[in-house]
Fold each of these.
Amino acid sequence: MDRVTSVRAIATRYAARRGPLLPILHAVQSEHGSITRPDVVAIADVLNISIADVHGVVSFYSDFRSTPPPAHTIEVCRAEACQSVGGQALHDEIVARFADSSDVQVREVFCLGNCALGPSGTIDGRLCGRLSTDRIAALTEGWSA
Ligand code: FES
């Protein structure tokens, strides 16, 4: 099955639900890794809504991506509790460390519910507390920087 057919099938599966757009977008991204312009067009067609409406939702939520995901993702919490123990500086250092890497995406997040163990973050989806540049270097050993 080609991608457009797959996306149309996903959209059709959720179309009769109340508020189907977000579940469709999550399902498409889960299945294909991103939500491309042709995906947006297909979803809009199936739901009989405008392309702009679908694009607006895709572009509003930072979790939706229009390009394939990088090999690795680091999230660093920048909310208050983590910020009070160095989360901001840690985020900036990690962004600089991986600035030239196309394999690693560094994202800011705002509270992971792990405030007591800040600075907190995730490494490829795994929640980590008491993060430091040294600890992140150890946890990402072998990644291209
Ligand atoms: S403020 Fe960072 S985990 Fe809650």
Amino acid sequence: MTRLVAKPAPAPSAAVPAPVPQQWTVLDVIRWTAARFSERGLPTPRLDAELIVAHVLALPRVQLYVQFDRPLSATELPDIRALIKRRQAGESVAYLVGKKEFWGLDFAVDARVLVPRPDTETLVEEARARLDGAEAPRIADVGTGSGALAVTLAKLRPDAAVFASDISAAALEVARGNAERHGVAVTFLEGDLAAPLEGQAPFSLIVANLPYVPSADLAALPPEVRAEPVLALDGGADGLDLARRLVDAAPALLAPGGTLALEIGAGQAGATAALLTAAGFVEVHVRPDLAGIERVVAGRKP
Ligand SMILES: C[S@@+](CC[C@H](N)C(=O)[O-])C[C@H]1O[C@@H](n2cnc3c(N)ncnc32)[C@H](O)[C@@H]1O
């Protein structure tokens, strides 16, 4: 197998002019890396390769496409190689490059927060639909992590007052940085679930992507997921411990007609919908993600 090392220039010949030294180009290295990742069974090999190369070259990923023929320097190659090794050892690309795209926005991420997932965009879609026609809505994102939901909703609804809470002070530091990065005003509050929102004026919408992995399933998660904060993953015995507590607390925080929308794991829709109904929510409905998995349960306070 070819190794990812600088290719030596061919020896000059007296008869033929020395050719330009053959070097790894951007496209060479992307292809090589994607092939290695594919051999390892990584789910998105080409994308991971492009994200790593773009990061080392300090380019937006789309710029790679117009620089495919660019030769890589002797310092860029070892930097890429180091990240490839870490990816192969199970680190997530988002932590390696320090960012993740969500709803078309770049969010800074590190080991203090869960990497925002494309599935969570389903919750943004639900929120957007629920807020349609509402003037100057008041929105709360409980368990904000990187701030992906709060910041995205603040971008989508500049007229909204957006609050975001988390029990992790470390996560809130990351979220604050992301709000600054995207130039939105979000009020960040530290504390357990709904507690920091008590005493605020009633909300039109509460969104939450709380930890929902059943505790017994944590050990079987892929290594890159296990590298994320356990506080962001562990949902207790059936995965619904935090959802259960928030569903109970939410009616006191919502304005009449306000919505609670929760992201859930596969197979949790029925139980979560039953929790909302038992807590008095009406028009409880489930929204699938792009893969057709029931991903969001939402209900309205009468
Ligand atoms: C699954 S992550 C979601 C992060 C982010 N909202 C997203 O969608 O990418 C869950 C978040 O809930 C937070 N969390 C866990 N337990 C909590 C609690 N009791 N009260 C408030 N936040 C909590 C974690 O710190 C973590 O940031």
